[in-house]
Amino acid sequence: MPRVTPIDRRERILDAAREEFAERGFAASRMEDIAKRIGISRAALYLAFDSKQALFCALVSEVITDVMPKLLPNDYGALPAAALLRGFIRIAMVKMASPETAFLPRLIVGEGRNFPELARFYHETALICVLGAVERLIIHGVGRGEFTCADPKMASRTVASGIIFAALWCNVFEPVGAEPMNTEWMAECHAELILAGLRKV
Fold first, then answer.
1. Fewer C-beta within 10 Å: the chain N or C terminus?
2. pLDDT mean over 14-26
3. What is the CA radius of gyration of the chain?
4. How much is the pLDDT for 201?
5. pLDDT tens by residue, 78-119
6. Local structure of residue 80 (DSSP, 8 states)
7. Using 50, 70 and 90 to split pLDDT, how confident is the model at 13?
């Protein structure tokens, strides 16, 4: 087992926690098993993260920090809303359906009732951030005359629902025999359906 240095320790810990949560879920995961994956002591792990909840929250925050800048720009400016929304759906669906990320919504759906503080953190940190960005994008499209939408807030939830469905399908149902999903094609179909409903006739 290679020695873990302080420089890469946090990244290695988060990778190990991601693997542990993905394999065992939140309740069954143990801090000592996460420490074992990277060859550090339990005490060393607790110096970096004082609980499993802290590890989970760090993973959620990491997704938002790393993924959000790739999904949408901070300033939409004069960029076409339809192209931005299509790109958002494609990148978000492929990312959320990937094993390194999909365990998060799967864990929340499966264990959120027993760990409401985790569900609350995921909602307040990830969902509200993503839904707010999509809502602003739809409003941007309405302002440009590209879209017509009576309720951008509700429409943003419709966009997100297809992305969450794809993540659950690939990581919950496919492992038990469901037909494999081509997430790139699913993203294209979902984007086309959403845009057909938003386009100004």
1. C
2. 92
3. 19
4. 67
5. 889 999 999 999 999 998 888 888 888 888 888 999 999 999
6. -
7. very high
- Beta bridge partners of residue 199, listed in sequence order: 147
Residues constituting the chain: 201
d(CA 24, CA 161): 25
The burial class, CB within 10 Å (0-12 / 13-18 / 19+), for 112 is middle
**64-99: burial string, b at 16+ Cβ within 10 Å, e else:** eeebeeebbeeebeeeebbebbbbbbbbbbbbbbee
Task: Name residue, tokens 């060859």.
Answer: 39
Tokens of 184: 């790139």
Look-up: residue for tokens 């909840």?
53
Residue type, 95: K
